[in-house]
Batch of 2 targets.
Target 1
Amino acid sequence: MWGMKVLLVRHGDQHDQATWSEAGKSEEFRPLAEEGKAQSRRSFGSLKAHIEILNAIAVSPFTCAIETAEILARVYQSSSAATHEGLKPDANPDVMISWLARRSPKQTVALVGHIPQLQNLIARMCGLREDSVAELNPGSCAMVEFEDRPSQNEGTLLWVNRPKKTNV
């Protein structure tokens, strides 16, 4: 018997940060680079063998995360993702754990966001020190499973998938 499974997804590579900043544009609106879109497609294509269905997708309101979530939704032929402030890079991990705990426990839910937030979420869910969770590279995914509803320190980190970089 299993409870909730939480797929944590880091957005793919973005357009060059220096160029974006020099143009005076907000980091919140920096989109995925073509390589980032390709990373996401490769990574999510291989997920289908391990995760049959996603019941929900929550995503940071930042453009790169939304674009990543749209690719994920297409792969899973699921409805569009819902944005959640709790997935911003500096958000408190407890906000997302509370949101997950209010959902039905027999679901697989994807959270699409950024570092350090995703690493902090893994640490909080699994009872680990925040500095002990390896960095999720762009386009990486991790799966945390709970016996029932998510709560702090009760999750088990099942796996981490880090896509390889290729030339587009």
Note: The mean pLDDT is 89.
Target 2
Amino acid sequence: MRSALEGGIVAVDCSWNRLGRRGGYPLEDRWLSSMRVRRRLPFLFAANPQHYGRLGELNTAEALGAALYVVAGRETAETFLGRFAFGASFLDLNGEALEAYHRTSGPTEVGILEIERFSGTGGPAGAAPARSSAGAPR
């Protein structure tokens, strides 16, 4: 997190559908390739009107707000997300997870929290139980 506080956060405002058709990020770009630390956001639920409730389908404002929360805390994220109609809903949907991610020391702990959150034992309220390969709840 120190590197984000010192070097900043980058948000890519693009259509993920189009990015996929192009083959991903243009890694040959000197600016992108010069970034020393690259991390993805933890899995979160969208609150924007186009993708409400969908896992991982955040718009750029939600992604940037989530990054601000993880790096700088809730107050900073609230200040930023308060500019958007869906900002409060985004924090309602993801606030508990974002707070847990904010308290971690790095990506390894975030990964452990994600496994717990989506394994069926530590998932968000109302989440379906994890299923075995036979399709029965565990």
Note: Residues 73 and 123 are 22 Å apart (CA to CA).
